[in-house]
Design brief:
By secondary structure, the chain is mainly alpha-helical. The protein has helices at residues 2-5, 16-35, 66-78, 86-95, 99-103, 160-173, 192-206, 209-213, 221-233, 238-245, 249-256, 263-279; strands at residues 110-111, 118-122, 124-125, 143-144, 154-158.
Length: 280
């Protein structure tokens, strides 16, 4: 059972957080069986089992630079159904929103000046869970932010370029009746298949053949990775980056350690200076 819960439905290894959650559920189920007298004891308490290790760190090859991001957004704008979703991809790249957070982004969550830095006030997310798992019967159902309590708000800065993109989006495309910025082809919730196909077409149009064949920004989620990597490489303290991205500092540094460019050279220069000082 433990080996099985460490796998996804397609047979590939599950994420460590998923394995941990499923093991906890199994443990509690077995404890309940013990309480009901169906088992003499819980074998999980004495079993030496560890989930197979799975790399959590982000592959630095997926991270795009600002020039590539602009080219991709321009390509999205040229596609038939692309213009209304330029801002959708932009909030992931400039503000590190998760796709579910971007899908449920609403006008009342925006604090945008005419130009310059603005702010996004995030309080809900609508990840794709499937109709069978939602109370409403819809594939997406708004809920609190990941790792946050109900009604807790995460404030994320909006760089000047994103502020302009969002203001233009509101003028050109407006919102749904309930204030959502982004919608599907028929006006409902934006689906992964819709924006996924659009992104795949934009990569083919904007990137070179070798880049398109590589892991570079292969998934829209990789835009979030690029945002967090940009903040870290720009010198923003890890505690602040973690707050903006909705991570713990521990997870942030473990997942994005390989994406912090230039650290090795800087550290080596510090060691050289220390060695020189020691000789003087």
């Amino acid at each position: 059972m433990l080996d099985t819960l460490a796998l996804r439905l397609d047979g590939r290894p599950a994420a460590p957080s998923t394995v941990s959650r499923k093991r906890a559920i199994l443990f509690n189920a077995v404890e309940y069986a013990v309480e009901r007298g169906h088992l003499a004891g819980n074998p999980l308490t004495s079993m030496k089992w560890r989930a197979p290790k799975l790399a959590e760190a982000v592959d630095p090859r997926v991270v795009i630079n600002h020039g590539q991001a602009r080219a991709l957004f321009s390509a999205v704008r040229q596609l038939g159904s692309g213009p209304p979703l330029v801002a959708f991809f932009a909030v992931m790249y400039y503000a590190a929103l998760r796709p579910g957070e971007a899908v449920d982004l609403r006008k009342d969550a925006l604090a945008l000046p005419e130009s310059g830095w603005g702010e996004l006030y995030l309080s809900t997310s609508a990840p794709a869970a499937g109709r069978s798992w939602s109370e409403s019967g819809n594939r997406r159902e708004p809920r609190q932010l990941k790792h946050r309590s109900v009604d807790e708000v995460r404030v994320v800065p909006s760089p000047p370029e994103l502020t302009t993109i969002l203001r233009d989006h509101l003028v050109e495309h407006g919102t749904t009746s309930d204030g959502r910025l982004f919608r599907g082809a028929r006006g409902g919730a934006l689906s992964e298949s819709h924006y996924g196909r659009l992104w795949a077409a934009a990569r083919f149009a904007a990137l070179t053949f070798d880049e398109a064949a590589s892991p570079l920004a292969r998934r829209p989620y990789d835009l979030r990775h690029a945002a967090v990597s940009t903040w870290l490489n720009g010198g923003v303290p890890a505690t602040q980056v973690a707050q903006w991205a909705g991570h713990s500092v521990n997870v942030l540094l473990r997942v994005y350690a390989k994406c912090i460019a230039g650290q090795d050279d800087a550290l080596r220069r510090r060691v050289e200076r220390a060695l020189r000082d020691g000789r003087s």
